[in-house]
Amino acid sequence: MPVARHLCLSGMGVLDSGRVELRHLRAFDAVARLQSFTHASEALTITQPALSRTIQQLEDALGVTLLDRSSRHVEMTDAGRTFFEHVERVLSELERGVDAVRRQASIRLGFSWLLPDPWAQDTVARFERANATTVSLIRTDDALAAVQQGKVNVAVVRGQVTSTAVRVVHLFDEARVAVCSVRSRLAQQPALDWADVPQWPLVVNVASGTTGPWSWPAGQGPQTVVQTSNFDEWIESVAADRGIGVIPDVAVRRNVHPGVRFIPLRGAPQSPVALAFLPRARNAELRRFVEAAVASAAACAT
Fold this sequence. Notes:
Elements: E1 6-9, E2 13-16, H1 22-34, H2 37-44, H3 48-62, E3 67-68, E4 75-76, H4 78-104, E5 106-111, H5 119-130, E6 134-139, H6 143-148, E7 154-158, E8 167-174, E9 176-181, E10 192-193, E11 202-205, E12 225-228, H7 231-239, E13 245-248, E14 260-266, E15 271-277, H8 284-301
Parallel strand pairs: 5-6, 5-7, 10-14, 11-12
Antiparallel strand pairs: 1-2, 3-4, 7-15, 8-15, 9-13, 9-14
Helix pairs in contact: 1-2, 1-3, 1-4, 2-3, 5-8
């Protein structure tokens, strides 16, 4: 049998503090400040009957009447004014504690290679302006695995995600371009048709690439596939003219390698970009980050 904890407040006797919860204090604080059950229920986004029950539970736990409901405006009793001073200090200290912890917290955002622009920059700025939490950018060869292993809170993933172990929130689609070595015969061509890509050896990033043999119906993909396990291996293999690659067009806006050339792709399907995170996550900061990411994606689309 648990031992009851007790609290003594001046002029109020001894009470079982286990019966007083944070929701009671917030409810009393709102009614006392606004002098109205109607306005307090709106501020707390609860119904008036629920608010009245919460206040009644608090008064029962304290053994005193805190609020005088007989007048036109709700007013505090003498006991209510005494308790209100304590409640204000408790809630103020709690808020300072929460802010202090949030300043030390961060959202770990995983990514395997170039982050989409300007979406990534807009999202980080939007989130950090609105929250006392920073975003830590973590480069990893397999961002999806990093989420599942708990190494990051959320990750930017490209291409189709078939794993049921994560929740996926679609953000937008990226156009594709071909990339080849500056020494390749393809480097002199003004464009390449998507249907002609399988005629060339294809360099594939099997960990996080968006294009591979799976991008075509069975039997219609490239005959020669050069497998790599991360972006650095992939880009160096293309630069060495071991084959061509297909990549989202964000790479065109970055100086990723002096030994490659980008070729426009005609008729290529776009590549989806999404956020992936564990479905069991109950992190309020993560939820706010996802909301900021979706808002930034919508803004970039306009």
